[in-house]
Amino acid sequence: MFPAELGASWTALALIAVSTVGAYVAMIVFSRITGLRSFAQMTNFDVAATVMFGSIAATTAVTRTTPLLQGAVALAVLFTVQALIARWRLARRVESAVDNAPLLLMSGSTVLEENLTTARMTDGDLRSKLRLAGVTRTADVRAVVLETTGTVSVLTREPDGPPIDLDLFAGVRGHEQLIADESRRR
User: What UniProt keywords are attached to this protein's entry (predicted)?
Assistant: First the structure.
């Protein structure tokens, strides 16, 4: 009687329990088949896929309009598409279509305002990322990069330390500024 007072029947609750367990098991099985990258938030595509996994699993678990078998098939299709795109990303054209290129936000202590605007970040956002990285002086910064995942990498070194390995910045938009700045430092 208690579930009926809250708008559900024991049968509906049992169906939700079975569907939830089934969706969970399906996600585990498919993620084991496709590998660890299934839930890694490495690119915009991976974030979108992760949100879709959750949405499909939730819809399958709590709605009567999506039976367990349909939810499992939807999860299988999404895992397959994600695995195929992960494999196709090895080709440069597909990678550039799916992923954002990393973006240089600071070269040394110089903030690249145009790139900051492109990244839709404020000076305050950047300062926050520097503080989170433990930077106490902008003079210690050698480079700040907005990565394809949306995370911000802050690279520092001692002023008289070895130069940055510029090969790490291949494919980073704006890396030319860093190359020019590093050349002047040498």
Answer: Cell membrane, Membrane, Transmembrane, Transmembrane helix
For residue range 108-119, list pLDDT tens digits in order: 999 999 999 999
pTM: 0.64
Pairing of strands 141-146, 103-107: antiparallel
Spelled out in words, what is the top-level CATH class assigned to the domain 103-185? alpha beta
Query: Distances in Å between the alpha carbon of 22 and those of 17, 37, 54?
Result: 9, 22, 14
